[in-house]
Queue: 2 jobs
Job 1
Amino acid sequence: MRLDVDNLACRRSGRRIFAGLTFALEPGGALAVTGRNGAGKSSLLAILCGRLRPDAGRITVVGVGEATLPECLHAVGHRDGLKSALTAGENLTFARDLLGAARLTPRDALERMGLGHAHDLPVAYLSAGQRRRVALARLLVCARPLWLLDEPTAALDVASQEVLARLMAEHRAGGGLVIAATHQALGLTDAMELRIEPSGGEPAPPADEGLEDWT
Amino acid sequence: MTRAILALLARDLRLASRVGGSGALSLVFFLMIVALVPFALGPDLNLLSRIGPAILWLSAVLATLIGLDRLFQADEEDGSLDLMTAAPVPLEGVVLAKVVAHWLTTGLPLTLASPLFGLLVALDGTAMASTAATLAVGTPALSFIGAVGAALTASIRRGGLILAVLVLPLMIPTLIFGVSAAQAATGGTVPFLVPLAVLAGLTLIAAVVGTVAAAAALRWPE
């Protein structure tokens, strides 16, 4: 799929968060959204998710048939969307049945995230980092072309960050798209950077030299 | 789409059966209110059996409110609602699945238990059967009306009280026709089926309006 965002503006509670945001993502592309705290990184992701109405601008998706943008994406954010009372396996089975387009089984997806032993454990027993890994395992149980990641490495240890980097590389190699809001280098090679400036400033032009140097 | 709705229904039923679920709680709350009334009114069996259907209906309305405040709020807080927005199902389908799950865990147990609890307020067989029948027809309306309030207060912390203030007035028509149908069965000038048909109509209207309104409230929280 191809994603075009044109002149997007966001307003929350009457206050303008950002304006004039324009970018395009080709298959296999990645976008790192950066900016100071409160610049509107999460708001941008919320607009893409369909949870927030844009103030102006247009979002176009090409090459997914009839599906709407929210139906083409996976979102993993601060709120992990897991039910504490259910086991990790039950949470993933529910996500797979709800979202459709099943790929890996929940057990295999958890194995990939190094959490195979947690399949039958209630999520309430897991640590913050383990919960985040269960939420990331959702990316693997259903196939969706666009991954929206909000601070995906928060609470993750170094080994898991490497697993995540590898997953994102595989996803992009298969023609998938990744948009990540982050303060840290994620190991996204050749990613464009979109810096959201306060009070509706122009976004920085895409930088092609990778993201190793902007931590 | 059906698969997603069934998955949602199964998940909510499973959650209600786990620790912290509100399934059994509303039934116990129902029992509490019904049991308190005879203590308050005294052992006047004629009075109790006359107002019995009204007491059962009032208790059912209040017991429906238990767990209603968490209907969407719990999913809003932990991000599950974002997951549901991304599902290939319109939000109306999500609301429908969650309300049906809510009714299966509160309205249906209340209906099934009402003949038993009718003993506490000295109902005879006919009154028990008619009250249970009206509850079966009317409690879905309570769940659907409540869902609108639950969707509006989903992002408000401690919105339970606001929810009650919002939805209780909207439940008045259901309460009126529920009680009058239950009482029409044991005597009176109106045949049983007339208020029951109005009650069924109210439930159908609530099912449509409630589903659409709750989905609209969830769609754009700001």
Note: Chain B has one domain: 2-219.
Job 2
Amino acid sequence: MKIKTLTAPVLLAFMLAACSAQSDKDAAQGAGELLASDWQEITDTAKGQEVNMYMWGGNDNINRYLDEWVAPRLKELHDIELTRVPVSDAQDFISQLLDEKSAGKTAGSMDIIWINGENFKAAKDNGLLFGDFAGQLPNFNEYIDQDAPEISHDFGEPVEGLEAPWGKAQFVLVRDENKVENPPGSMDELAEWVHENPGQFTYPALPDFTGSAFIRHVLYETTGGYEQYEQPAAEIDDLESRLEPMWDYLNDIEPYLWREGETYPESLSKLDQLYASGEVAMTMSYDPALAASEVLQGRFPESTRTFLLDAGTLANTHFLSIPFNSSDKAGAMVAINEMLSPEAQTAKLSPENWGDLSALDLEKLSPEQQQAMNEVDLGGATLPLEELESNRLPELSSDYIEIIEKGWMENVAKE
Amino acid sequence: MKQVFSPLKIILSLLLFLFIGIPFIALLLSSVATGWQWPVLFPESYSFRAWEYVLFGSSRTWQSIGTSLLIAVIVTVINVLLAVPAANALVRFQFKGKWFAEAILFAPIIIPPFVAVMGIHLTFLRLGLTETILGVVLAHLSPTLPYMVRAVMISYNTLSVDWENQARMLGAGPFLRFYYVVLPHLLPGIAAGASLSILISLSQYLITFIIGSGQVVTLPILLFPFISGGDPAVASAYSLLFAGMAILALLAMDAVLKKYYQTKNPSVLKVKGVKR
């Protein structure tokens, strides 16, 4: 009796598995062709397809840009139906794809995913991505500087065409002009300023994403540049002693931080709160346009300005990719290509829509396109695009980030 | 009945109002506030950006409320159909391994749903049940069924077999016995279980997201990214909408039950009349 009840579902599972194995072959054939065929054929195949885009859905501006700007345009120009699927963490759909891979599901519902950093590495290592599709996109070939380190690498991981850059973020420091007249241009100058103005500066406790990025700037400046960290962390034998100057720097400024460094704000939003209420004179952000929008909303004072370090600040890129089992790969490619067009990128840059930095190389655009992009009003607190673009540093790969976050706990927070 | 307004009663109802009312006031304010700084008690300026996005934008809110309610209702109906015979067996029969059956039935209350849902996801993927409402309904049964069984078991505990035996002697078949003797007695338990089942099903995020793979969009699927992403205005607006949906669902169930009792009573009287 018990055995009977078990066999029924098992049989059913086998039957379904057999059915899906059949469609498996068809999909594989189609996919290979897509990576080789010419763009005209791809756009023809894409017509009438329904494309599901899985992405973090926690910002109404971003959601609206997709729903009200990108989706109607795709429908009109390419007859593609774009549906945005909101997700609260990119990790969620990566683990879902892992399950789908191990269950052998070939006709998946995810056609475009929005990822970078650790999630890209996880997806790449587990073979969850479609393939080297970026080189097929006309806008990728025409407008994007493919040799730039922030395009060819994603947090130290070679991209290899598995994802196409959608936008960029860059680290900026935020100051209140009335309290910090001359912004410090280096970590040494910052230390000097902190000594002279005790209690006016702090950074979010690690592992906060932005606090961790701040520490990486300290690392680059106190240990002699980013070039040495391009190899995997395991290959540097004396890593611990190399990190020593960074801990010394952080311990040196600690007594002069907010609340004498006895405690750190637990997150960036707490630090922003301190800045908004005037307790500290500086905050920081990995989004160069965010301070401007906080000023617009009345949360930050009018005298808020952003600034960079002379040696440059960390920049990262966020990417669009196609999962291995997407059912509408041609539609996904056409949609991604459209999102990389100068028009879509200019609209994305506008703070009314989103305020996200363009992934395109300004110099590759036509004069009219450049002008359109430069005319976007980024708000008084945001730096000009050229200044941001010429001061970029590449991100560190995630194995270093882990080591640094652990080290901070032992060397700075505990002492 | 004489109404007594003792000071204790007034204080208690005031406290009750404070506990239930104040969070809602805060939610309402934060859904329309812009630039609400710490020392200020009330926001300085207001905007309806969040409500406009939630109600009229392209946010698919209404569709998702429909999906949420549909799933909750189907889940609850299945729960009733499963829980009544299960409770009957667990309360009235002694059999080997009963403690084990009970342990399995109540395990989902103790074991975090995340553990179970990962395994369910793999199985459902092989069966082709992911991305369907049916799959989500089946997955919602695991966190809701224990409460339903528990509630119906309590009703069964107070129902003596003598009542059914008496009905049997009067010539009632199994269906009539169940319909006229057992069901009216179970109804309060079923109502309690159904309320829990509806509320728990409505508030599922993780299970719905994993099994529905983003293709079954309920209200929590839209709401959670805003809570974790830190847009308090939109998150508050969605939360209020969610509370409204849950309260309406419970009121509707209450209304249906009341109607059932009203139609029930005359029939009882009629039976008495025939006897006489």
Note: The longest strand of chain A covers residues 313-321.
